[in-house]
Design brief:
The protein is α/β, with parallel strands linked by helices. It is about 30% helix and about 15% strand. Strands 5, 6, 7, 8, 9, 10, 11 and 13 form an 8-stranded mixed beta sheet that branches. The chain has a 5-stranded mixed beta sheet with strand order 2-1-3-12-4.
Length: about 375
């Protein structure tokens, strides 16, 4: 029974619990149990305090993280946990926080998780993280002014291009897109800036193009299209398919015509890295099973708080994006009948048919909504 599992969990010192309303690094109390301050270690009893890393205030991650935490706490039933959404610098900080044990759950961009899991790109080591649930797509593209003369991604060579905030990790999906189109990051005049300022830089000519996106419709793209005539730089169809075949976090997606002002035709875009919930590989299997089960069974409550909850569905929740799923999540998805059918639990068995075209859900989730990647610090 879940109740018996969670009875083995522990609090830190009672005095620490009184001092703060719920866990935020409360590890100073004395205890005779060596696992008492680690929620992933079965102990003698008490509440499991779980911190969920999100991102800075102003984007989607904090809102979605809070929606998930509230839902888990409201519907915990016999599960003795307390989940707190915790503001961080984003995906990269969250992954490091899981490794240090400062966080037990986190939101991340799946492209960044992909490279962290493998210790590639700018990561200094392999991070032993696991996926719990795949959520909303991050649909992004290069945007330019209509009179810029930029007609293809190859035309970005030598141009001033905004690719996201410094240290945010956008290079982990922008880099492969450029390189597959024959353009290296070194071939562009790379500019680091958040999406809002990037729109202004396009307006005043300080940048020739900007990589913008997020939940559809993305606020930054909507702002640009409402401010001046824009052009969406197309992906070469063959290159787009190669990217999808090469990287499991890329996924074909079509932005419906009329989503953005001045763009009445559908745009063949890319999901460049879905938001997903991750945890450490060492997290207790029964705990992750119960967290996944509670999230799935009460996903309608998450939707009421944020539209990103709509992505917790039969086709998407267990979709493989390049990071292995936690065994606790796999156990639930198999019981629920939504685990991708296969005789094997290998990575290929988890993979969704990434070449299939899907339509971006054109519902504005919060009006602000880039799917953050987070600071690298």
């Amino acid at each position: 029974m879940a109740r018996n599992i969670f009875k083995r969990w522990t609090l830190a010192a009672t005095a620490c619990l009184v001092a703060v309303s719920f866990f935020s690094g409360c590890t100073g109390g004395e205890t005779t149990d060596p696992g008492a301050n680690d929620p992933t270690v079965p102990a003698t009893g008490g509440t499991a305090f779980l911190s969920m890393g999100t991102a800075p205030i102003g984007g989607t991650f904090p809102i979605v993280g809070d929606a998930i935490a509230q839902t888990l706490n409201t519907h915990k039933d016999e599960n003795n946990w307390k989940v707190q959404a915790k503001g961080t610098k984003g995906s990269q900080a969250n992954i490091r926080g899981l490794a240090k044990g400062d966080l037990q759950l986190a939101l991340s961009n799946s492209a960044i998780s992909y490279f962290a899991f493998r210790g590639e790109s700018s990561w200094d080591q392999k991070y032993d993280i696991r996926a719990v649930v795949t959520m909303a797509p991050n649909v992004a593209m290069f945007v330019t002014k209509a009179d810029s003369g930029i007609k293809s991604i190859a035309d970005l060579k030598g141009k001033r291009v905004v690719i996201g905030p410094a240290g945010a990790g956008f290079e982990m999906f922008v880099g492969p897109i450029l390189e597959e189109h024959g353009v290296k990051l070194a071939d562009i005049d790379k500019v680091n800036a958040p999406q809002g300022p990037a729109v202004d830089m396009l307006s005043d000519g300080a940048a020739d193009a900007a990589f913008l996106g997020g939940a559809v419709p993305a606020a930054a793209i909507s702002q640009a299209c409402a401010s001046y005539e824009t052009s969406f730089v197309p992906f070469d169809p063959e290159v787009r398919q190669r990217l999808i075949d090469k990287y499991p976090f890329f996924h074909a997606i079509t932005i419906p015509g009329g989503t953005y002002q001045g763009h009445e035709e559908p745009f063949d875009g890319l999901n460049v890295g879905s938001m997903h919930v991750i945890t450490a590989a060492s997290t207790d299997e029964e705990l992750v099973y119960q967290l996944t089960k509670t999230t799935w069974e009460n996903r309608a409550d998450i939707v009421k708080k944020h539209g990103a909850g709509k992505a917790i569905n039969e086709k998407n929740a267990a979709r493989y994006t390049g990071t292995e799923f936690h065994p606790g999540a796999v156990k639930f998805y198999k019981e629920a009948g939504i685990w991708p059918a296969s005789e094997s639990d290998s990575d290929s068995a988890q993979a969704d048919d990434a070449s299939s075209e899907t339509e971006a859900p054109a519902d504005n989730t919060d009006g602000t909504a880039p799917a953050e990647t987070g600071d690298s610090k």
